[in-house]
Amino acid sequence: MKLIPVLVTITTVLATMSPTAVRADGMQADIDRAAAMFEEFQADPDPIIPRAVLRNARGLAFITVYQLAPYIRGGFVLSGNGSKGVLVARTALGWSAPSALASATAAYGPEDKAPLAEYILVINSSDAMSTLSSGGNITLGTDVTVAEGPRKTIVGATPPAAIYTYGGSLDPSNRTSVEGAVIAVISDENTLFYGRPVSAQSILSGLVAPPAGAAKLVKLLENH
User: Fold this and answer.
1) Rg (CA), the chain
2) Given pLDDT bands bounded at 50, 70 and 90, which one contains residue 74?
3) In sequence order, which residues have a C-beta less than 8 Å from that of residue 33 and are 6 or more positions away?
4) Where are the alpha helices (DSSP H) in 18-143?
5) Which 3 state secondary structure label does DSSP give 189?
6) Among 118, 89, 114, 83, which Cα is nearest to 101's?
7) pLDDT by residue (tens digit) across 130-145?
8) pLDDT tens for each residue of 158-192
9) How many domains does one find in the chain?
10) What region, left, alpha or beta, does residue 222 occupy, with left being phi > 0 and alpha being psi -120 to 50 degrees?
11) Could you give the CA distance from residue 41 to residue 24 in angstroms, rounded to a whole number?
């Protein structure tokens, strides 16, 4: 599936108007946040994501949700939540280098406030990873099934959902959900970070070596 016009608008705004996205180090900040998120979620003695779930994962998406400032388009004032982050895939040689990722829920405009929520999406579906790697987009809860991730698992059991979600709101007064969000890789941010045009397929298949800036994240994943 190719990017729909609404998502193109959303992700273009996120990439060109967001203060963290216009700099070449914007994706590095997302990678650092992903590493910190994973450390926090998996801290002993009670890690949030069971090792069995991680072992079966086809990919992991680390996303931070922001409230977006109102944006006037076509005479209408539109607002909502949007998120940025990174996506990694499991390859034959281990975890891949990260690819930039963004999602939105009918949202436009630059980031307006501090982060509202943090999520780790455990992608159990090879088809979902294939779609994202090829430059397509998926709507969570529509194109793929989404469920709150289990804290305990039965080894060998088939995941009941294509994507498990872990995490949630950082502020109890704000309720967020990834349900209905459209997610896709962001080629422009990948180009800025890697210093050359590089496809999501190349990154997520392992053809692109993880850069030094992603070493901590990859090491954390490999240790779990």
Assistant:
1) 16
2) low
3) 62, 64, 85, 118
4) 26-41, 51-56, 126-133
5) helix
6) 83
7) 999 999 999 999 999 9
8) 778 999 999 987 866 667 778 888 999 999 999 99
9) 1
10) alpha
11) 27
Torsion of CA 6, 87, 38, 110, to 10 degrees: -30
Q: How far is CA 206 from CA 94, 98, 133, 185, 200, in A?
A: 8, 10, 11, 16, 10
| Cα-based torsion angle of the residue sequence 119, 31, 13, 68 in order, rounded to the nearest 10 degrees | 40
Q: State how far the Cα of 30 lies from the Cα of 108, in Å rounded to an integer.
A: 20
195: left (phi over 0), alpha (psi -120 to 50) or beta: left
In Å, what is the CA distance from 56 to each residue of 28, 130, 150, 166, 174?
A: 27, 16, 13, 15, 32
In this structure, the strands spanning 76-91 and 94-95 are: antiparallel
pLDDT at 57 over 50: yes
Residue type present at position 19: P
Containing structural domain, residue 169: 5-222
